[in-house]
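Task card 7
Instruction: Convert sequence to structure tokens.
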Amino acid sequence: MSQPRPCTVLALVGRLGVASLLLASTGCQLLSQTPDPDRRSAIRERVAYGLSAAEASSRLSGLGFGCSRRSGEYLDEAGKAREADHFLFCVERPGAVSFACQNRDQVTVVLRDDQVSGIEVRRGPSCDQTSPEALKIK
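Output:
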């Protein structure tokens, strides 16, 4: 499964409609691509090197992330493409009010022998479908 590409025209047209394309593409440029430094520190404190993949996923879930196992290409904190045989790709879950595409914090946990050997925290576009639970007003 490939990683979402930043603000692609096709994704925006398909998800937001032609009328929203101009507004959405302008908005993508204005959204910060850098996670809050305090949030980045909190993630790095909770997900230590050497943790099992299951424990790292559980701890990130407690911080509001949904994780999936992947292999292949991921982006590091500088936005450079990297490769790994095994990693967890974790995206911040949408809040009560969510748009089809929005910037969310993302964590890539690189695994070696099913243990954390690298942590990349970045912010980037996510065009995941919003779950019905996320749309409920709390």
